[in-house]
Every structure is written in structure tokens, then in C-alpha cells.
Amino acid sequence: MSRNHAATPGRKHRRSLLGSIGTRLAVWFSLAFIVILALIQLAELWGVPFTQYSGMVGHQRHEAFRSLGLIADLKKERLHRWLEERKDDVQEFSDCSAVVQNIAILHTAFHRLSATAKSKEILRTSLSKEKSFQRIAHYLDSIKLAHYEYECLEIVDAETGVVLVSTDNADNACVGESLCDRSCIAATLSWHGPHISRVGLSPENSTPVFKICYAIGTSDLDMPEVRVIRPQAILVATVDTNSILGPILHTGEGLGKQGEALLVNEETRILTSLKHPLADGRIAEPLKYQIVAKPARLAAGGSSRCALTGQRTAVRGDDQSRGLWFP
Questions:
Q1: CA torsion through residues 46, 48, 49, 55, sign
Q2: Could you tell me which residues are beta bridge partners of residue 231?
Q3: Model's pTM, two decimal places?
Q4: Spatial distance between the Cα atoms of 46 and 98, rounded to a whole number of angstroms
Q5: Which carries the bigger pLDDT value, residue 158 or residue 296?
Q6: N or C: which end of the chain has fewer CB within 10 A?
Q7: Dist CA 60 CA 326 (whole Å)
Q8: What is the CA radius of gyration of the chain?
Q9: The domain containing residue 140 runs over which residues?
Q10: Predicted pLDDT at 34
Q11: In this predicted model, what pLDDT tens digit does every residue of 216-228 receive, in sequence order?
Q12: Burial 59-98 (b: 16+ CB within 10 A, else e)
């Protein structure tokens, strides 16, 4: 009895302490204050739902997307400008009066010799002895020497697709052979102006290349600007994608240490080599490695908006797919 009697006042004292109105109000106000502070901190970080305030994280993401969009636009403009310059070069090379006149002579000699030559070696040897061949070959060699952008310059017969003159080999091994990509011939003949082919793998060294083609017509001597409807030959300039487009897409530290800009085709396959290996250590090969992430699919499908998925963000311009590595 005495033990119970002694414990009763302590329990009553604790009940009265916790059960007082002032204490409960203090506890509730403290909890409410803590919750409000937490909500304010969360709002500052992540923004307020259903409002235009996106918080610090949203602001940083917006600035990152804006920076990526700016880089993509600059790369697109530089790439377009470079392509336009190369198309103008090829057109100027093709419209040279000396080239047009010598092509007319060489074209006639080619069909005359191909009708009697018993092998490609005989045809190649006979063509190389023609004065028109030597003049055009010297002209193409001087162009290639002055313009490092072109890996190879070739003049192809528009009717048969056979290479008439080439800078590929010193022994003219390509002369007399058919051009590997015959589709660019048909596209060039139906295209009014320089034609740029799709990026493909070179049969010689399996490097990604694309071709800039322009039809060479036999112009009237009194009116050099007038071209015939059916050209006799096509000038084909081959460009190494890695050696040329790689420096154009280089961003330095603009995308961080792991960041890089890259080109993908409509199948989301990369068109240039990546600056860094893949996560598993493999080296991604152009036109073989396919990016399956959502941003790459959006870019290849024509989307102009930014998208963030994992570590990939991608945007697309009017006619060039662009993927941007998000560090």
C-alpha cells in the first residue's frame, strides 16, 4: 500500500506536466515550425508544384538545357557552314573550263578504249596515256594538296559509274573500276546542284566517310555557264568523317570532362568516334554502335526539345541529328 501510495503522486505529476494546455501548444507549434522550415527548404530546392517557380534544381537544369541548346546550335551552324563551303568548292572545281573541256575529250577516249580493251589493266594503262587524263589528274592532285578536307577526289563516268580519274593511288589502281556507291550517281544526276551522300563505311579501311558529288556537264565554249541536260561525268569528293567532323564537334571543357557532342543517323547509330570508351570499356565504332536511349530516338525522330534520361541528353536541328553527352 505504501509503495503504491508513493508512486501515485509522481505519475500524477507527469500526467499533469504532459497534459497541460501550454505544453501541448508548445509541442505542436514546434512541430509545425519544423515542418514549415522543411517545406520552405524543399520549395527552394525543388520548386512549388503547379507554379512557375522551379527551385534551385529546376533553375540549374534549365540553365544546363539552355547551355546544351546553345552548344548544339553553334555546332549545327558551324557544320552547315562547313558543308556549304565544301559544296561550293566541289561545284567550283567541276565548273572549271579546263576540266569541262578535258572531260569531254577523256569521255570520248574512254568509250573508244573500253570497246577495244580486253582487260581493266589495259584500259587503265591506255587511259593514263591520254593528255586529257594527265591534265585532269594533275588538277585533282593540286586540289587535294591544297584542301586537306578531301580524302580522295574521283571523276566517274555518269553512264557506267566507272572511275575515270582518281587521286586514291599513285598507280591509278582505282581507274577502270566501278564506284562502290552507285546510289550517289543516280542521286546526283537527279539533283540540281551538289549532292551529299549518307555516311557509310569505306571499303578500303572501314572508316566512316561521306561523298560530295557534282555533275560535270560539257558546256558550250561560247557560253560556259550553260550545261547540258545529261552530264558526261561526276566529280566525287570523299570526306573522312572522323578527321573532319570530329574537330568540328569538339567542345573542349564546354560539356565537362566526360562531355562530348556527337552525330547520329536516323537509326541512332553514331557517325563519328566517341571521345571516351563505353562504361564496359568497349570502344564504340561508328555506324555500328547504336544509342538506344530515349533522347537519341527523339533526336533521330526529329524532336527539337531537350530530354534527360540517365546520362544522355539529345536535341535535333532542322536536318542534322545531334546528341549531347550530359556529364
A1: negative
A2: none
A3: 0.71
A4: 68
A5: 158
A6: N
A7: 13
A8: 34
A9: 81-245
A10: 92
A11: 864 444 444 444 4
A12: eeeeeebeebbebbeebbeebeeebeebbebbeebbbbee
Q: Are residue 134 and residue 263 in the same domain, yes or no?
A: no
Q: What pLDDT score was predicted for residue 224?
A: 46
- CA quadruple 106, 109, 115, 119: dihedral, nearest 10: -70
Task: Output the nine-digit C-alpha cell for 39.
Answer: 517545406
**Coil, strand or helix: which one is 233?**
strand
Across 96-100, 116-120, 249-253, least confident range: 249-253
Element (H, E) at 247: helix 241-249
Q: Point out the domain boundary residue: 245, 267, 296.
A: 245
Confidence grade of residue 1 (pLDDT, cut at 50, 70, 90):
very low
User: For residue 87, what are the CA distances in angstroms to 41, 211, 245?
Assistant: 56, 10, 15
CA distance 50 to 53: 9
For the stretch 100-148, pLDDT in tens is 889 989 989 998 998 888 888 888 889 889 999 999 999 999 999 998 8
Q: Give me the amino acid identity at 255.
A: L
Q: Are residues 240 and 274 in the same domain?
A: no
Tell me whether residue 135 is in a domain. Answer: yes
Q: What contacts 24+ positions apart, CB below 8 Å, involve 110-117?
A: 110/157, 110/162, 110/164, 114/162
Residues 6+ apart with CB under 8 A from 160: 178
Burial (0-12, 13-18, 19+ Cβ within 10 Å), 160:
middle
Residue pair 152/179 in contact by the 8 Å Cβ criterion? no
| pLDDT tier, 149 (very low <50, low <70, confident <90, very high otherwise) | confident
